[in-house]
């Protein structure tokens, strides 16, 4: 399971951005504010306990939110992970979260912060009050108290997660919702890559994890970069390809390409300059073919009927295929 934290002052756009990110990465969006508001609406004991504190812009007790978070973790095991929004809000909660996750053999993967100024917090919340009708958005005193609470109790988490090497920040001030979303998705892609870069042993567990990422990807495939730094000017990767993934007929003019099949079955197909198939190499299964060396300048593609996990190596840095190097 992955555990991401969406961080930022009230009104930064955490709730607005959470949906798209949760969908893309198959995460469950968990907003403690939303959970508390539904408890209040349902008139539960917990809701009654929280109501006045929220209306005044104060935090509700740790035990209350941590109980909600833990039961959310316990009751949702079908997603790839969780996108926490509004939790943790204090150093105490962050430490409790670390302990809660350690008991499950898990950890916080990353914290993505949307940063806006106090002036923008005021403007956004005042505007939101006219749309969502939240009690704690309508009163200027409550807004001020929430900003003060954020600076005093929540902001120290930035240092906490920065020291843990898990803190990423995007500008939430300039640009519209879509621009901020693109910034966040770029950060998420980078985190995913960093996550996979750490592994040194290439085992079935790693292949399973990359396969899981491929299953969650709309492109039905996923690369696992085996380089340790961006400066490494080679291409060495594990590539999981699921049925339905499309690879254009393409060629590489600067390097030959070595492909070794690690799991599954696939065909490597060679074409002439007119796009006519000239050779098909069945790999895997009982073919006895483990890999293929594709000469430089050779038009080719991969066809996957079940599943294929390959190791691929080429000279030179990756660059997007240009039009001249793709056949229709
Ligand atoms: P939000 O929707 O995240 O702005 O949360 C609304 C209100 O719910 C906050 O102002 C707090 O009163 C309460 N709340 C939400 N999350 C927490 C938390 N992690 N710890 C304490 N109180 C919280």
Please describe the structure with a list of short key phrases separated by commas or semicolons.
binds adenosine monophosphate, seven-stranded antiparallel sheet, Rossmann fold, alpha/beta, 328 residues, Jelly Rolls, five-stranded parallel sheet
What portion of the residues fall into strands of 2 or more residues? 25-35%
Average of pLDDT: 91
Number of domains: 2
How many strands, which pairing sense, and closed or not: the largest β-sheet? 7 strands, antiparallel
CATH fold-level name of the largest domain: Rossmann fold
Residues in helices, as a percent range: 40-55%
Distance between the termini: 39 Å
Structural class category = alpha/beta
Pattern of helices and strands: EHEHHHEHEHHHHEHHEEEEEEEEE
**CATH-defined architecture of the largest domain:** 3-Layer(aba) Sandwich
Identify the CATH class of the largest domain: Alpha Beta
Radius of gyration from CA coordinates = 24 Å
Given as residue ranges, the uncertain stretches (5+ residues, pLDDT < 50) are none
Number of helices: 11
Write out the CATH superfamily name of the largest domain. Answer: P-loop containing nucleotide triphosphate hydrolases
Number of strands: 14
Bound heterogens, unique: adenosine monophosphate
Shape by Cα distribution: elongated
Describe the structure.
The protein has 328 residues and is an alpha/beta fold. The protein folds into two domains: 194 residues, Rossmann fold (3-Layer(aba) Sandwich), CATH 3.40.50.300; 122 residues, Jelly Rolls (Sandwich), CATH 2.60.120.10. The chain is 41% helix and 26% strand. Strands 6, 7, 9, 10, 11, 12 and 13 form a seven-stranded antiparallel sheet that branches. It starts with a strand and ends with a strand. The mean pLDDT is 91. The structure holds adenosine monophosphate. The site of adenosine monophosphate (AMP) has 17 residues, from α2 and α3.
């Amino acid at each position: 399971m992955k555990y991401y934290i969406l961080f930022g002052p009230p009104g930064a756009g955490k709730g607005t951005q959470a949906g798209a990110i949760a969908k893309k990465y198959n995460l469950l969006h968990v907003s403690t504010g939303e959970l508390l508001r539904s408890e209040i609406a349902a008139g539960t004991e917990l809701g009654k306990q929280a109501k006045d504190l929220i209306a005044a812009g104060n935090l509700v007790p740790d035990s209350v939110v941590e109980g909600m978070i833990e039961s959310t973790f316990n009751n949702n095991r079908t997603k790839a992970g969780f996108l926490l929004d509004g939790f943790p809000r204090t150093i105490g909660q962050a430490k409790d979260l670390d302990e809660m996750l350690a008991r499950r053999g898990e950890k916080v993967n990353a914290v993505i912060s949307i940063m806006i100024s106090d002036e923008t917090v005021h403007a956004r919340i005042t505007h939101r009050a006219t749309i969502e009708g939240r009690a704690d958005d309508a009163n200027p005193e409550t807004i001020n108290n929430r900003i003060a609470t954020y600076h005093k109790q929540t902001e120290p988490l930035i240092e906490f997660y920065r020291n843990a090497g898990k803190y990423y920040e995007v500008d939430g001030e300039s640009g519209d919702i879509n621009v901020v979303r693109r910034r966040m998705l770029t950060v998420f892609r980078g985190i995913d890559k960093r996550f996979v870069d750490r592994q040194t042993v290439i085992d079935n567990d790693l292949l399973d994890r990359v396969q899981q990422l491929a299953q969650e990807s709309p492109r039905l495939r996923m690369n696992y970069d085996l380089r340790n730094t961006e400066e490494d000017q080679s291409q060495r990767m594990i590539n999981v390809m699921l049925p339905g993934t499309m690879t254009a007929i393409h060629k590489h003019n600067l390097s030959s390409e070595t492909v070794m099949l690690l799991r599954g079955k696939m065909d490597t197909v060679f074409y002439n300059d007119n796009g006519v198939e000239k050779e098909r190499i069945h790999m895997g299964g009982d073919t006895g073919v483990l890999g293929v060396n594709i000469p430089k300048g050779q038009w080719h593609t991969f066809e996957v009927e079940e599943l294929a996990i390959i190791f691929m190596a080429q000279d030179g840095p990756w660059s997007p295929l240009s039009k001249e190097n793709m056949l229709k």
